[in-house]
Design goal:
By secondary structure, this protein is α/β, with parallel strands linked by helices. It has an 8-stranded mixed β-sheet.
């Protein structure tokens, strides 16, 4: 059995992130550590084991004993069942147990099986499908890293609602164009079809409205719903039977996931309402893009996205040309053929001429310049919840608020750097000179230049435009103009610094540190406090003015104090439903002020101990530490994923070398544990010896200073003479 897959800490996180934290049952042998891990996370968890240690008080009252095929609880008692069979359980007994698990499970099943040559993943999936389960829509949350190893494999399932028998014909493709439910079909083809939707979940914002064209049986729509925070997902298909199946099978438990039958295979009558459209042409490759692209764009909000799945069998350069007539072209991806293991590496931008993709995915955006201010409705942070909060009042302050999503927000804006630059230049040219629209475009373009100054064209022109914008907006009362004045002033300082003009950068940082952020929001003080620190740093290192450096650092601390004492309505937005970013930004302000405080504290040591004192200024920066952790983990995950892909392609899943590697890794872990144990034991022995030595020394000292020792001193002297 894989120790990695059933590591309690990892498994608890997997279950909570895919199935939630409602009532859980653990079925298997020796899962007491797992139950304790769930309890430590505040999860109501129970167990059913063949036997249990009566002395384990931590799980008393939570565990029943008996055969796996008889669990003494009522039907549907648990939201999630975790089942881990060891090698001692026969495969026939495992099959009988699955029927019992199906009875007690309300919705989810996490299954871990020891590998058998005669009963593969596909065999087990087929048995689970027959028992009333389908693959969990969030299977790929865990599948990317540990779906299968040399000794065992893990599967994640969702229980199927009762479906009318006449709808089950959709699960069998008899040469027709009837859609299939890929979450109820085993194998690499179905995994790849499902993974497409999971991969592009990052394009969906909270509260987005998603339209899924050619949704078929609804499996892709369900994946979109489960993997995102969309407020509404609408599946559309020409097959009446498929829509009925989707409604019966996937709408239960899923709020605003709905399905619409449309015989024309076109978008429903939505105008400027869809935030993102998924268009799957794998079922209808005969449709030409010109037939639908115009209608799709009309149904989308300005700045909305289209993700278009197009089989390579019908793809041509003409598709891209027509696509760009209606949408700003952002990205193209290849989906490669895969085996039973599907990871992030199976979908990637075109890399080499040797790629032989089975599917091409085009991503494009409806131009935000097609939007009108009066049509704008904010859904990400709705105004009925965050009324008059400056930080999210884009509809109130921008001339074209649709720009915020497409141009400004780093998580959702155009993914193509070339397209982003082009849009920014277009806005700079056409926007009202003192508008927040122009300020935003100047700042976005400036940061694009800052990423690669050697290739930056018209940098001098941009710097002059930024200075003019800051000058003409000095008296502006528009909160978002105030925001962009501060951000652009900070940008000027960064551009000067990157160009080696450190004296000029010091001046620009100091100007930014002194700007009043009160008309906008305390959160923009991240720029103010950081500018104060950077100004002080340059005053000290470049201008050799320690006095002004201390003034700047004191300014940074004072600014942080003002920001945190300011309006918490602007920080939280709504006390009952606070922003998801406000307090994080405040912690950044405090971290930056902490750096200013350390600079002041250690400033007297700069001359005598320059290395040590300066290193302490930058130590314990929580945000930097978190960022390093994130990127280290991401890099490690990418290495693991790439290794899995290489192993699959080389056909080494069951190879002896992989087993030896795992055994070696286990030995290393065991050796490390033994080393730690021996080190701990040695430390204890040394500690005991030190205590004994101290006791002997104390007794010896008391003896030497005693009266009897002094009286017998002549006798000891005479004894030594005769030795």
């Amino acid at each position: 059995m894989s120790a990695h897959v059933l590591n309690p800490t990892i498994l608890v996180e997997h279950i909570i992130s895919t199935c939630g934290s409602s009532k859980i049952l653990c079925v298997g042998s020796d899962l007491s550590r797992l139950i304790k891990s769930f309890i430590s996370r505040g999860v109501d968890v129970y167990g059913h084991f063949p036997s249990v240690d009566a002395g384990d008080t931590a799980i008393q009252g939570r565990v029943t004993t008996g055969p796996y095929s008889h669990i003494p609880v009522a039907d549907f008692s648990f939201q999630t069942v975790i089942c881990a069979f060891d090698a001692a359980v026969s495969e026939d007994e495992q099959l009988l147990s699955i029927l019992e698990i199906c009875r007690v499970t309300k919705r989810f099943l996490y299954l871990h099986i020891t590998y058998s040559e005669h009963r593969s993943i596909r065999w087990w999936e087929g048995k689970l499908f027959d028992a009333g389960f389908r693959k969990h829509p969030l299977l790929f949350e865990i599948l990317q890293l540990n779906y299968i190893d040399a000794d065992s494999f893990t599967m994640l399932f969702e229980k199927i609602p009762h479906i009318h028998e006449t709808d089950l014909h959709l699960l069998h493709d008899k040469g027709s164009q009837q859609p299939l439910d890929m979450l109820r079909i085993t194998g690499s083809f179905s995994n790849a079809a499902c993974f497409r939707y999971f991969f592009f979940r990052w394009h969906i914002r909270q509260n987005d409205t998603v339209v899924h064209l050619n949704c078929g049986t609804g499996y892709g729509s369900a994946i979109i719903w489960d993997a995102s925070l969309a407020s509404k997902v609408v599946g559309v298909d020409a097959s009446h039977a498929a829509i009925k199946y989707a409604q019966d099978s996937y709408s239960p438990h899923r709020g605003d996931l709905s399905f619409i039958h449309n015989p024309d295979v076109s978008v429903p009558p939505l105008e400027n309402l869809a935030d993102i459209v998924f268009w799957d042409c794998s079922l209808h490759p005969d449709l030409l893009p010109t037939e639908l692209l115009s209608d799709i764009r009309a149904a989308m909000i300005p700045g909305g996205r289209l993700v278009w799945f197009l089989p390579t069998t019908v793809f041509s350069d003409t598709n891209v040309d027509i696509f760009q007539k209606f949408f700003i072209f952002e990205q193209i991806f290849h989906q490669l053929p895969t085996g039973d293991i599907v990871g992030k590496s199976s979908i990637h931008p075109p890399s080499t001429p040797n790629d032989h993709p089975v599917m091409l995915i085009l991503v494009g955006m409806k131009s935000p310049l097609l939007g009108r201010k009066e049509d704008y409705v904010e859904t990400f942070y709705p105004q009925d919840i965050y009324k008059n909060s400056n930080v999210v009042s884009w509809g109130r302050d921008y001339d074209n608020p649709w720009l915020f999503r497409a141009l400004v927000h780093t998580g959702w804006r155009l993914k193509s750097k070339a397209a982003l630059k082009e849009l920014a230049l277009d806005v700079i040219t056409k926007a009202i000179p003192d508008s927040p629209d122009k300020g935003a475009a100047l700042c976005v373009l400036g940061y694009q230049y800052l990423e690669d100054l050697d290739k930056a064209k018209r940098l001098g022109w941009l710097v002059n435009e930024i200075r003019k914008y800051i000058d003409i907006t000095e008296q502006s009362l528009n909160p978002h103009v105030v925001r962009w004045r501060i951000s652009n002033q900070y940008l000027l300082a960064k551009l000067s610094q990157a160009n080696g003009k450190l004296s000029e950068a010091c001046k620009e940082f100091w100007l930014c540190a002194q700007m009043d952020f009160g008309q906008f929001c305390p959160l923009i003080a991240t720029k103010s406090v950081e500018s104060a620190f950077e100004a002080g740093w340059l005053f000290m290192n470049v201008l050799c003015d320690v006095t002004m450096a201390k003034v700047a650092w004191r300014k940074g601390i004072q600014t942080a104090k003002i920001a945190t004492n300011g309006s918490w309505k602007e920080i939280l937005g709504n006390h009952e439903e606070p922003f998801d970013f406000g307090l994080h930004e405040i912690t950044q302000i405090i971290d930056l002020a902490d750096r200013c405080a350390k600079a002041l504290h250690f400033s007297r040591q700069f001359t005598g101990r320059p290395g040590k004192s300066i290193s302490l200024i930058f130590s314990n920066q929580a945000d930097s530490f978190r960022a390093k952790q994130h990127w280290d983990l991401e890099a490690h995950n990418q290495q693991v994923i790439e290794l899995l892909r290489q192993l699959k392609n080389m056909g080494e899943r069951e190879s002896q070398s992989t087993k030896q590697l795992m055994q070696t890794e286990q030995k290393l872990r065991d050796n490390q544990l033994e080393h730690n144990r021996q080190l701990s034991e040695t430390t204890r022995i040394v500690h005991d010896l030190n205590e004994k030595i101290a006791t002997v020394e104390l007794e010896l000292k008391e003896l030497i200073t005693s009266k009897s020792w002094r009286i017998t001193h002549p006798l000891r002297f005479i004894r030594n003479l005769f030795r």
